[in-house]
Write a structure and sequence with these properties.
By secondary structure, the chain is an alpha/beta fold. It is about 45% helix and about 15% strand. It has two domains: about 5-190 and about 230-250, Rossmann fold; about 190-225, no CATH class. The chain is built from nine helices and seven strands. β2 (about 35-40), α3 and β3 (about 60-65) form a beta-alpha-beta unit. The structure holds NADP nicotinamide-adenine-dinucleotide phosphate.
Length: about 260
């Protein structure tokens, strides 16, 4: 197989959560460039239309989905999948609000579990029957390096990410026999609107300027900089492609070396 064919997604259908901004949007663009037909998921229809208009190629579509209210769109996904089989599912959505764990309300935990764990489960159960018929599938979860090492001031996020990591490992064990791989991408600091929110929150708490917070953050990364969304998208392309055919149940950390564990 040529190198080009190895990374091609020609003829594949990819459903991508949170794909109108940051990491999810970069993955949608990368997959469309690689030849996939993309189904975008997010809440805001204007942003969905805007991202759709940026995708190279044809046959892409979107579904308005608020992960805080899966009961509003679960049936639409099932209906869509009557006529389309998804080869690649990327579970991704907005991150939980920052803050110390002791200050978190119960509702914040419930919401984060719903958006990350419950919606992953709903989408996975919807696409796996089609993947079984296809004889192959890829499930890629965008989580966080906090799966390996909790991050200060991200109490609800740290907790939820650990649950998603174990959910993914369990799933990988169950569905490997159908030639469906399940892997996680653990991003470090990546320059997206979500990152701006974290930087501004930290600046308010510490009295530093946002630029100082960003410099501090970059200095904790061995590569000395904050990453770009396309650097996550490249890992997601690898995991979606034939190049990763024997990789399942694992984490790929894309953080410039920041995590101090293996
Ligand atoms: N950026 C980083 O440095 C970093 C590091 C580690 C982990 N992560 C994690 O990676 C994921 C993506 O982060 P990002 O930085 O790309 O975030 P982002 O730029 O804020 O993008 C979030 C995306 O999710 C969608 N979204 C938000 N809330 C949603 C909801 N309730 N239902 C459905 N869609 C929703 C947004 O679109 P709508 O608002 O239109 O719905 C948008 O498309 C998050 O879980 C984040 O915590 C990010």
């Amino acid at each position: 197989m040529s190198i080009d064919t190895l990374l091609s997604l020609e003829g594949k259908v990819a459903m991508i959560g949170g794909s109108t901004s940051g990491i999810g949007e970069a993955i949608a663009l990368r997959y469309a460039e690689a030849g996939a037909k993309v189904i975008l998921l997010a809440r805001n229809e204007e942003k969905l239309k805007n991202t759709l208009s940026m995708l190279p190629g044809t046959g892409h579509q979107y579904l308005v989905t608020d992960f805080k209210h899966p009961e509003l769109w679960e049936q639409s996904v099932v209906d869509l999948l009557q006529s389309i089989k998804v080869d690649i599912l990327v579970n991704n959505t907005g991150g939980p609000a920052p803050g110390p764990i002791l200050e978190a309300d119960i509702d914040e935990f419930m919401e984060a579990y719903k958006m990350h764990l419950v919606c992953n489960q709903i989408l996975t159960r919807a696409v796996v029957p089609g993947m079984k018929e296809l004889g192959a599938g890829r499930i890629i979860n965008v989580i966080s390096t906090s799966v390996r090492q909790p991050i200060d001031n991200l109490g609800v996020s740290n907790t939820t990410r650990g649950a998603v990591g174990n959910w993914a490992k369990t799933l990988a064990s169950e569905i490997g026999k159908f030639n469906i791989t399940v892997n996680n991408i653990l991003p470090g600091p990546i320059r997206t609107p979500r990152m701006d929110q974290i930087i501004n929150n930290r600046a308010q708490k510490t009295g530093m300027t946002p630029a100082e917070v960003e410099d501090n953050m970059a200095s904790s990364v061995p590569l000395g900089r904050i990453g770009e969304p396309v650097e996550i998208a490249n890992a997601a392309l690898f995991l979606a492609s034939s190049a990763s055919s024997y990789i399942s149940g694992t984490n790929i950390i894309v953080d410039g070396g920041r995590t101090r564990t293996y």
